[in-house]
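Thread title: Can someone regenerate the structure for this chain?

I was given the following input by a collaborator and told the matching structure tokens would be attached. They weren't. Posting the sequence so someone can regenerate them.
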Amino acid sequence: MNLLIINTHFYLGDEYMNRKFRRKFKKFFSKNQTLVLFITLFIMLAFMSTGYALLKTDLLFNSTSKIVTDSSIISDPDDKAYDCKTVITYEITNSWTGNYIINFTISNNGEGKINNWKIKFADSNDITAVSSAAGNVTKTDGYYYISGMTWNSSIESGSSISAQAQISTSRTDIDSILKNIIIVSCGRATSGGTTQKISSGKATLDLGQLEKQINASIEITEAGAWGGAVNIYKVTITNSLDVAITDWRGMIYYGDTTLNSVYPCNTTRNDDAKNIIVSNTSSGDGALDPGSSISITLVLNTKDTTYIPDYIFAGTVAA
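Best answer:
Regenerated them for you:
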């Protein structure tokens, strides 16, 4: 009998406490409705944001997605992203069966100007074609490459360039292809604000950390041609290094003469300074093994049949 009274006492006490708690809760809710509503909305938005983030991840490669090259993914020894201090982004703008149109942007985050950029499709498996109206496309050892053209091969420090390309492939994992596009050449990118220079006479080039001086020669092949007022020259560029180069460029200072033409190569002409920067073309002739050479033709308007211009050349090392 005593035990029953004690248990009833505890039960009645618990019920009393429950009623007291409910009264306090109702009183708190009535006085703080705005605060409670705000907390509820905050929790709902947090769940919605998490769901949207997951959905966005699933739709990463739709027509408006941007893909940033992740250097932790790439293990290709040709990758020069760290040395060149570049970031490459991509956007898929259109696609149909087996074909993708992408816009790629190369941003130069280094302190020096990029002179000749070149990117590589490090995952070229099952790619049947790559084309670009804004870049030179080559294929070497099974890999597709795109390099800059005369009008877009240079990127100033802090600037970027954009170009478009079409990829044809039987694969559906386009993300794997895009995530493995790397930059393999950036020409005259400098390091630490220090720019090395090489000179010969009045021809001077700024060298970057990936460039080294290479040999070149200029000889007259036809003096006093075209009515006696033109010299035609053969310019021979030789990779004198013990490693391969991916690109070459040089300066030719033509002084008191007048530049008529130079071909086949990309050119940046400066008539005020009486010089011209020449670099490799779109046909893949920038890649030279040790000891290999390539020639271009230079035409100067001059009556001096013995005149040889000043010149200096450099190549971008492959490794």
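The longest helix spans residues 2-31.
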